[in-house]
Amino acid sequence: MGSLLVVLTPDDDPNPGDGRSLGPPFGRQHKAGFRGLYGRCSDPQGGRVLQSYRVPNYQVPERAVAAMAAMWHHRQWLNTPPLATEPLQMDRDAVRRVLDRVRAEDRVTIGDTEAREILEAARIGLPKSELAKTADDAVAAAEAIGYPVVMKIASPDILHKTDIGGIKLNITSAGDVRDAFDLLTYRARRYMPDATIWGCQVQQMVKGGREVYHRHEPGSSVRSTPDVRVGRHLRGSAERRHFPRGAH
What is the spatial distance between Cα 144 and Cα 136, in angstroms, rounded to a whole number? Predict the structure, then answer.
């Protein structure tokens, strides 16, 4: 037996001796003991006796049961084996080339294509993707990746693509690829005429899974935290899971 819950239901004023009779047995055992007392009186004297034996006392049994459940869940968490991790094998030269190129162009942001280069340098698995500068290039990329595909506007100046309608999902034919390329580039030039447009990113359509993004504000004293968003197409429009500090 790992724990015991004693519930007293006095019809009249409770006997303080109940605390003295229950306290010593729990005090001698390395077990979790709980006492629930409800009725006409809360028996403060008996509660003080139990407290001297380190036996918690609750006014209603539901709170005692909730405390026992919390202790059980905490024990399960303590018994969980530590997560095994492997050292990150980063191709630092590849990352440096990307960042040097960005600095040479006097930019403070990077585009999706450059972000993918950095993630690939860290050997992080990603959906298949190709940068297409023309509609013909987009069709060739979609044929090589395999339908269905996703298309996104590719620009270092357009960070929030959904704000301008810069994403098309579930494209299943060459004709739809051409239409999507024309539409996405048109929207980008219309809503952000000064933006540099590289073309469109053609990507493998992935259903199910979790999208993880890391947010950090330079110069902030607050530790950055990763978020996990759960959605059908790895989009951020569905349920979001937020990790507390120290969980990463």
Answer: 12
Q: What is the pLDDT of residue 89?
A: 83
Q: How far apart are CA 35 and CA 64, in angstroms?
A: 7
Task: Say what the pLDDT of residue 44 is.
Answer: 66
Residue 188: is it exposed, middle or buried by C-beta count within 10 angstroms (0-12/13-18/19+)? buried
Give the domains, in start order, of the chain with CATH numbers: 3-78 (no CATH), 90-126 (no CATH), 128-205 (3.30.1490.20), 207-215+224-248 (no CATH)
167: tokens are 């994403």
For the chain (248 residues), the mean pLDDT of every run of 10, in chain order, is 69 51 54 49 63 75 86 90 82 93 88 87 89 96 96 91 92 96 96 93 84 63 49 39 40
- Return the DSSP state at 246: T
Within 8 A by CB and 6+ apart from 24, the residues are: 53
pLDDT of residue 183: 96
Please report, for residues 36, 68, 77, the alpha-carbon distance to residue 71 in angstroms, rounded to integers and kept in the order given.
17, 5, 10
pTM of the model: 0.53
Least Cα distance to 139 among 185, 175, 169 occurs for 175
Alpha helices in the chain (DSSP H): 17-28, 44-52, 61-78, 92-104, 112-121, 135-145, 174-191
